[in-house]
Amino acid sequence: MAPKTLYEKIWDNHVVHESRDGKPALIYIDRHLIHEGTSPQAFAGLKAEGRTVRRPDLTFAVMDHSVPTVSKERLLPIVDIDARLQFEALEKNCRESGVRLFDMNSANQGIVHIIGPELGITQPGQTIVCGDSHTSTHGAFGTLAFGIGTSEVEHVLATQCLSQSRSKTMNIVVNGKRPKGVTAKDIVLAIIGKIGISGGNGHVAEYSGEAIRGLSMDGRMTVCNMTIEGGARAGMVAPDDTTYAYLEGRPFVPRGKAFQEAVELWKMLTTDADAKFDTTVELHTKDIAPQVTWGTNPGMVSGVTSRVPDPGSFSDLNDQKATERALIYMGLKAGTPIVDIPIDRVFIGSCTNSRIDDLRAAAHLVAGKHVARSIKQALVVPGSRGIKNQAEKEGLDKIFTEAGFEWRDAGCSMCIGMNDDVLPPHERSASTSNRNFEGRQGRDSRTHLVSPVMAAAAAIAGHFVDVREFDVANVE
Amino acid sequence: MQPFIKHSGMVMPLDRVNVDTDQMVPKQFLKALTREGFGRILFYDWRYLAGEKSNPEFVLNFPRYRGASVLLTRANFGCGSSREHAPWGVKDYGFRVILSPSYADIFYNNCFKNGILPATLTEAEIDELFKRTEKEEGYSLTVDLPNQTVSDPHGLVYKFEIAPSRKEVLLKGLDDIGTSLQQAAKIDAYEKAHAATATMYETVDVKNYPSAL
Description:
A: alpha/beta, 5-stranded parallel beta sheet, B: two-stranded antiparallel ribbon, 9 strands
């Protein structure tokens, strides 16, 4: 047998139908995750054609994008009428089709890409789709997971399959041990900085190398989560003992003998030694400093020790124009040291960085300190109610609130600003989320993407700081 | 879906790289329940000033481009969010064709579900089209899908590549779901064959797990 990459193995395992004439194959979808934002039109389309949900048992729904993050607001009628209508539509669609729904008052509610792994719905070797581009997160378990549009959501509801062509493959190798203060977020931002935001277009990425192997599942999820920001729809990490240890005992994971059998199968999910990738990218952790984005896409990123770049330093004319535009939007001058950029608000949350590891690291750093006076708001929004509970058990909520942070309920929150958690015009955030596009966190708002420890340190200092110097003792 | 065969129309130049789907349809419009009406809010933050006053500096509001149906733009168009609201807005505004050197994967895919042709030309060809659009008011192009050509009234003809399966979907206005459902027997067979494998543990009995579920 010809050697195969992990992607090719999972692909081959899921082909339902493949014609010889180069048409897309029909591949089976093991888990379909849906949320209120991109599913109503899919259910409406299904109904209009007289079709039904083929596998409600493999479909999981959650309310996350527009939910309030102030707990008591969830017990009252939702004030935002458009959001309320979407919640009601999701509830009705799930009830009628028999899809399991984690509504906003469920103990398991959370961001769709947080609760999938947390509940063990996500397992190695699966294909997972969701009408959300950050579905790439689940690839951390050695799954083929990617975001789809609403028409494809409808397609999966109707058929439990998706019409797909094979992607090219990209091997992203991160060598070296991870230094103190350099997190999974910095690794993935450095990768995007290197390949550019379209560098992965047409590819499925696989991450490997010592630095990736050394990450916890939470860290691997952060890396895979932002794969889409480099253009690749899916990113994956081959499962190993870290993966199995994370999964064991989670609600939807098989138990006892069945678990052991599953692990034996999961162990086959590796890229064969002599398999070929279409593209290979290599980085070394010694070259990666804590990262801060300065522009209006995640590829506009630098190490914290550098300066805001000069548009003239780019060779491509389109890049020059884009950089010029970005600096105007961001209200930044070329040549300004990154550490001199003052910030207004801090957001620790999103499907990128709201897991327990993220909260522990940030809490550890802020313990005994206080948010700078110049900071108007510092928000911590756990990715799920499960994570919120765990953090509260560990007393992290107290550490945050004593330091001047607000401790909120789970949801997408200020990453996308579909609820009340919006970054006001011209204000500047240090945000652990995934996109710094114009208007992303609020119209005319200015987003700087950073890791949780960098966000926490910026909250304390009031401006960006090199977390490696700021608080060496408390940086993981 | 409405088939796409040939289209002639005025070109609107959007001279920016990496236009993301957040710009096409910002988040506040993702709370809709239908696929309609996104044309009015396409490129909302660029197009409107406070109070929905038309922004005279944004190209879409230039009187000379009113009625354009061919969107000419730069590399990596449609990056970011998977929101299909973006192509719904593009279509609803009146664009049938997009011309760019490259597209982000999810957006590209979504176009074909909505009868929009995202044609890929080289950087040099796109540059030339920007020049011609700028120079000639009312500059129009004809996009012929069967022949895979983009042409103007002055004799310019560019060939573009498109996967044959993508081409067929647009030409016939195919309903993907209907096509896939023709393979129902194969889907049944796949499910039967894989019911007991690691990826298909669908029979987990949740009664055994925490009551919160």
